[in-house]
Sequence to fold (337 residues):
Amino acid sequence: MMRLKIGLLTVGLLVAGVASAEVCTTQSQMTGAEREALAAAARGLAGKVQAGDVNGLRAATAAEYAKDFGGIGEVVNSTAAHVKGGSLKVEQVYLLDGTELKRAADGSVPDAQFFCSLNKTSAEADFIISGLAPGRYGFAMVDVPDGAAPWRLSFLLRQDQGQWVMAGFYPKPLMAAGHDGLWYWTQARSMTAQKEHWNAWLYYQQAESLLRPANFIQSTHLEKLKAEETAAAPPALSEGVSAESPLVVKGPDGVEYRFTALGVDDSLGNDKVDVTAHLKLEQVGDAATARKHNSDAMTALLAAYPELRKPFHGVWMIAEAPGQSAFATEEAMSQIH
Fold:
């Protein structure tokens, strides 16, 4: 299974506590000069991503992050293929003033909180960023609506000596299997009404993935989506699903399978997204053994929750054991018996 790596540039400092809220200025509250400076910087960075210009992007990155750029370079190259030739539209910019952030006595940096009131309403977009050094920051979202598929390139910017430079890069698709986040949200609500709780819970996850620009951003709408997702969760997930609290499913052969995570994936570009399931094992075994074990686990999962067959293309099973490489296989629903 192919997964897009996300380029995160963060300060290598310990996080201690949460700072008092810093100052956020939305684009409607900015001066024209402030807005255009952020937008121009974001367009320039997005253009370098489109061109696969890793060296140019590195030169436009804050010095402490540019030192170790290998991982970001990989992200840029993989993203460039999706956005090449598309038009660039700066969708939203925010000015985040963290100049009053203070380091703790031990040198650690608290989480920075920026609460942004949208259009003088009760709606908010909030940024809670770990390890943010004192400074003046911006966040910009650049949409590429007409590439191979719609994508969004988001950037955390920092003002250094009067120039906006990159301090974080967060690319992501805006559609999965031909549908956007609002479509998945609407479908999840319909599934909830039809008591298809497993399907709804997973579609809410897909909606959130498409609608959230970066993991450190929260908003009034995303909070509502998350609340609906929590309410729709099947009873079997009342305590969540994790390595410490796996979902245990007994297969037709009586074998118990322990799943530590469930999600969705669109890496194959099919007409429907796939279910992803992480399977906890003591030993992965050789390829033939692991493949059969994955197939048996898929059968057990669908036998326990047959509603999953309808709205998904297939299942990715990722077998994981301590100290061993994960083994992933995908099968279409029609292949799982």
